[in-house]
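Cross-posting from the modeling subforum.

Setting up a comparison between two proteins and wanted a second pair of eyes on the formatting. Protein 1 (sequence, then structure tokens):
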Amino acid sequence: MKGFVFAFCFLFLMTVSFPPAAQNALSASVEEDDNSVTGTVSGKSGSASVTISGPTKGDIATREKNGGVNPATGRSTASVEPPPSSFGNVSIGMDIESVKKALLADRRFGYRGERDVSLLAGENNKLIETDAARYSPYPYLDRCWFQFVDDKLYVMSINLNQEKLDHYSVFSSLCEKYGAPTTLNPEKAEWVSDSMIVDLERPLCLKYTDKAVFDRIQAESGVEETVAEQNREQFLQGI
């Protein structure tokens, strides 16, 4: 797993090191066999690759047979965790009053109370915006947004302090905990489970999204677009 994660990190850094105009001409791949993982980035001017040796499939089978413990080292080989639904004590799906209490209890966010709460367009859609860089004594967070739909926390975006943290360190930590991302491109890395979508967006923002609510909103948006397109066709036909 570490070899696979390292190869993904390599590909990601190699890809984003090219200027935006050249990124569309690049291709990347990760190949795994019994003994190693190889990552390759190819472009018009050539290619670069890295190969990481790892345990054989026989080793992995032996570890699984021993209850998730490597018999050679005695260390756990438990599988990676699913993408999280919480940051600190704030969890996706919490009602707005519970989120307010959690933010007040956690000084990292710099939450100032009702002055940080606003109403968005749409019924029961609210937003909490905090500025940790100005109002928190802790150095690792910047502006954060907590968006609610039907009084439930649906999206939270946690901007990290780029003077204290860097993209590669955060990306590597996420890969170690949650495995290789489901989606990887120069704009973001994305981990998806049945219930959650977790993004690491550039320049340095962690975004947690309720997948069920996201899918519902996307479906409703698609219906609205279809109706609008049908109305357009009816208008054109009536000219």
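Protein 2 (same layout):
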Amino acid sequence: MVFGFFRRKKDKDKKTGELKAGELRKLLKEGKYKEVADLLKDRYRENNEFTQIYFEALVNLGRREEAKRLLQEVGKENLPPSAVLKLIEEPPKKESLFEKFKRGLKKTRELIGLGKFFASHRELDEEFFEELEELLIKLDVGVDTAVSLVEEIRKKRNQFKDINEVKEYLKRRFKEILSKCRGEFKLTKKPAVVLFVGVNGSGKTTTVGKLAYKLVREGKKVLIVAADTFRAAATEQLKTWAERSGADFVGDKEGADPGAVLYRGLQKAFGENYDVVLVDTAGRLHTKEHLLREMQKLVKVVKKFDTDQPEEVLLVLDATIGQNSINQAKLFASAVDVTGIVLTKLDGTAKGGAIIAICKTLGIPVKFVGVGEGIEDLEPFDVEKFVDAMFD
């Protein structure tokens, strides 16, 4: 089956550089699967060991179709059993979007107890209204919103047959408020440039990595640019995310000029036919003014390549800080045209309702929500499923 498969390169091919199996296996152990796959994509037939290493890299990158073709071509007897087993095993059942939101909002339900609250009340008395208002404020929907919603329900009390109808009414009102913040993630340009802005600690770098993973799985050619050169280890962290996601990477040493790094990345993206460029930016500088001017500078760099870009400017907000995120949003929106919000760490907070206050106050579309720490736990925002998960 495999006669003639493994072939030696001609002498002229040796000029491409010597690859050592030991060094490649070391890269595999470090999780640098994409680097290994790139190094071996034209040379994995040179010998059996290279083929095995290349196969392992493909399997770990999730490039299942390529790995299956290679398995069929050389036979499982010539490949590592552990990697073959990983390939032929059924991938774990993917959670539905509703299940992810439900998992992400677990703390909101447990600590705030929306579902339990409605289950434990039978009468629409003053105690019910007072406790509901208190709950909504704890949920962080905003004091004004909480008071007005409870007042609406109080005025309509005679129209409700039971507590369950009140619950359904509140869910419907939440959905009406959030429907004003629907927005699709736009990728109409090629390459489409996406800037990520937000303070340090908001989950910005992680969000870049998760979105890169999602886009690579959709078959897009993705480049990550590390334009946050002020935070220690930011570039290395992002480089690791690029390797995990299967995206390519452009960065520089700490303290380098962010504009220069971005310019170099965009040259590569526009010159090498990339689909998407994801740009991480600084989240903390000496002063707020300095930080905002840095954002504006990066936007100007993008416009040197395409005056209609960046296509998206995504503001990453930490759900655990509740309504304080509104002040952050106003700050960044004063300097750049924020096109969408990514709400992160939703699984670590009891303040899932903050998204309602953010939407009502700012009117900026919510594009994605982070519902966990896994690489697949970044999902497009779905109003209906999100609100249902808050209650169910």
